[in-house]
Fold each of these.
Amino acid sequence: MKKNLLFFVFLLSVTINLMAQSDTKIIAHRGAWKEFNLPENSIAALQKAIALNCYGSEFDVRRTKDGVLVVNHDPTYFNDTIENQMYADLNKNKLSNGEDLPTLKNYFITGTKDKHNTLMICEIKAAITHPDLDKLTTKETVELVNQLGIQERVVYISFRFEILQWIKEMNPNAIVLYLEADKSLDQIAHAKFNGINYHYSNFKDHSTLANEAIAKKLKVGSWTVNELADFEQLKKMGVHLITTNYPETFLKAQ
């Protein structure tokens, strides 16, 4: 009887582990750019992530001086601070593949115009010149999503806690994931956020973190995971959203 019980427990643990691994979703970090020699955050990188059937394609939102929401990771574009420049002036410089500096509107339209399953993982960046711009950028981003009717195709992420709070105030049904590991899981759950998306080192340093988050009914993601060994370790821990610069490689490794 004892042997049968032990075998059952072993079998259950294996099943749970396999289910967790099969549940793993791959998010292309700034689009599928690195593996295909494309500019990061470009329309081409987004389209490649969609072609790969990634769970999501992550990108970064900033605001120009004249109020144009653009997709760019760094606060500067060709050494110009985005927040201090007009869009037309910034766009005189093109991405390495000849594309314009993407506007958020064009990015959203391109990423949601066809029937596919790839979600838009929208990171709203904190302003570097005027912190009060954060609320305006957040408001305009959510309003654009509502205007385009793509609420169910967008997931919001941010390193600033207040940005996600504002999103939830504007749309309580929005999916938001917090990127910074500076709050307790209870604080995140109390804020009605949907989950965490931490740097992979946080999970390696705290091996039960994913299970603790799952117990609080939070989604669990990790960034930016580029080594297959880390990918396998995180899967075993229960991390089910993996953001990577190598989405094709990771999809094949599932």
Note: The longest helix spans residues 2-22.
Amino acid sequence: MRVLITGGAGFIGSHLSDAYLERGDEVFIIDDLSTGSIENIHHLKSHPRFHYTIDSVHNQPVVAELVDQCDVVFHLAAAVGVKLIVESPVRTIETNVRGTEVVLAQANKKKKKVLVASTSEVYGLSDQVPFREDGNLVMGATTKGRWSYACSKAIDEFLALAYWREKKLPTVVVRLFNTVGPRQTGQYGMVIPTFVKQALADRPITIYGNGKQTRCFGFVGDVVGALIKLMDHEEAVGGVFNIGSNQEVTILELAERVRELTNSKSEIVFVPYDEAYEEGFEDMPRRVPDITKVSTLIGFRPTVKLDEILKIVVDYHSRQSSQAAATSGSTSGG
């Protein structure tokens, strides 16, 4: 099979590329490297069945050509991370909405199956935990910048499902909950890589808010496996699926586990939301997926528990730090 992945140099996109290549398929990616990184696909660049295009999904002729060459499309390109969303709301809205319009329109010409990656953020301020796909989405006020991301992704979902109902373009929507693993950067506010890097450097581990908020962290390998199975399953078409772990942990407990795993001397510091993001910033106290629907259809079960995920991420960033130190040493020593 020939697979197109938009945002393919991103954290999840690069792991999805790995999985399809290991399966024997051919992979095409497009990424403008605004939040993805060439480092994520460096190990794939010489692979004979891997092809990459550095460009934006807003470039219709380029997207049209790539879609024509492929059998299925994963649309992962999006603005990511709360920090980026708060700082660049215009970019967030334009990237998410316009990019999805282009991908769906081009895929529709040849009726290529499209999986659109959405987010748990669309549940907004809902308190109906665990979140079900048919539950109400409760958006905050338009004056609160962070909800621009949730709204733009909800529009993506509406558009994908409209293409299926009206034009019979086979589409699948997935709502990804916190996904973690190697190659994820803390640059845009991703909490686990941020905590791990801080702990390894014995810097203060910074918790935004009071630390009582809970999240569920799924391993990227589990998530990628679910994406591939949904793409392969005919009954997934026209559906919306939560994907993630349902193992809940408070952010404070998470910080303590990271500190313990790294034998760090870091102190844990609390930073008010207003100071971390913007005045009046709103956050959800809990974010837990109901994964019954995806489990029933494809047998999805999270296999990697939080402590194991943390060990994998700590090992990855420890190696990165060692390599950086070695490179720096050889450079300065030369």
Note: The longest strand covers residues 113-119.
Amino acid sequence: MTEQQLLRRIKRKTGEAIGAFNLIEDGDRILVAVSGGKDSWALLHVLRELCRRAPVNYQLVPVTIDPGFADFDSAAVAACLRAHGFEPVVEKSNCAEIIASHLRPGSSYCAFCARLRRGALYSCASRLGCNKIALGHHLDDHIETLLLNLFFSGAIAAMSPKLAADNGIHTVIRPLVYVEEELIREWVVMKGLPQIDCACPQKSASDQQRQQIKQLLATMSATNPHIKNSLIKALGNVQARHLLDKRLKDF
């Protein structure tokens, strides 16, 4: 596919999710979390494309959380945003320092970092007058999270495309929920967008389980190319009375 064909496909799937879950409404001011990775680039560009012909009016505010990791190049993210016509906001944080001094032995480095980043996004959204926060989690992220929880946490849980934030003020949205990671990867390469690493010092160690899940899905997809679509469909087709959760006994 060409760059434009890829973009149209991503736009169609994103629009489908926005409509299905009412992710964007008239008057929304949306903080778009831009990490510098492929997913956040795709999210920002696609939301801008959709905004041009949307039946509702909404604003996009790209925000980059600088976690304080020594090698994270927030200046490069900001420069790319400007080059593509966006006005960047870089929020400096002390996530790296807090993690170094407060992470408990045996706790997840990534999970702790994600909570700190999310808190920084909430604070920034309040300051900038944003009522929603858009994150770049795609279809593969949702499926992998489901399987990670099943295999390693003993829970049937994934990520919601629309969720009231922990602070009770903002709404977190994930418009790329129906978009496959491979589509995003191909489009970002064709578009010539940089992929700026988060520079997390623990990335390789903390990512091991997710890589195992990715490999499992790749192996299964080789014999059943529809496996991912089946799994994402399953997340919206919960048969509560066939589960063992005693809280669901009345179903």
Note: Strands lie at 28-33, 58-66, 89-92, 132-134, 162-164, 171-173.
Amino acid sequence: MKQAAILTALTLLPKSLLSKGVGKATRLPVSSKIHQKAARAFARILDIDTDEAALTPDECATFADFFTRPLKEGARPIAVGDDVVVSPVDARVSAFGIATGGRMIQAKGRDYSLAALLDDSTRAERFMGGTYLTLYLSPRDYHRIHAPLAGAIEACSVIPGELFPVNGPSVRSVPNLFCVNERLITYLSTAAGEVAVVKVGATCVGAIRASYCDLKTRESLANTREQSFEPPLAVDKGAELGVFEMGSTVILVFEPGRVTLDAALTEGDKIRMGQAIGRVTAGKE
């Protein structure tokens, strides 16, 4: 009954309008001092470590600049080893497992289809039975997304959709949440075969933008929604792939039998970008 009430409330919420408004507010053409004051308050309330940021609140022209702040060089050491898989983001572990039969866990009692997540049943065949990991970014987290392994970007796609929140109550209440929200997906060719880095939008996310091309959720839909790269774009492990313009979720999907996650990894763990989360166990190229 409670979940039904939450679903009704979320469905009625003017999510797109709210998200658009928040995105505009973070870039209002007003004095930078107003944006800086808001950024300082935001950092204080959420206890954000501003010392590790390349830009302090007082150096940002807009609140959006602070929210999407890059980090100082060396702030996130990248675990070494060609066979070491690293976290692409600062986040909390939401779910992980094996996509048996192409199904993945959203929350207790809810699962969803890998083919629906990728919006591509043919490509999904490659990941059937593979390892997946779902990572939730809170508003206080660093919001840039990085490569979990070295390799090359083969393609990316923007998938339009809804903007439901991706917090705990929403994940437990909204069926197929990660498949109905908008997504930007990066496909990497790596030592573990192909890896899908699925970036999921949410309420108040101004947009998700790729760092290696011009694709951006919402803004790209009238033009290019998919892009392939020939030759593929080489990337180092830890290289930046994209940016969330508010908190959301990243889902990593690997080919079957290629990656084993760290045995100590548990739901609810807080992890940081560059931290080792698993190893390539087969399929090295």
Note: Confidence is low (pLDDT under 50) at residues 1-23.
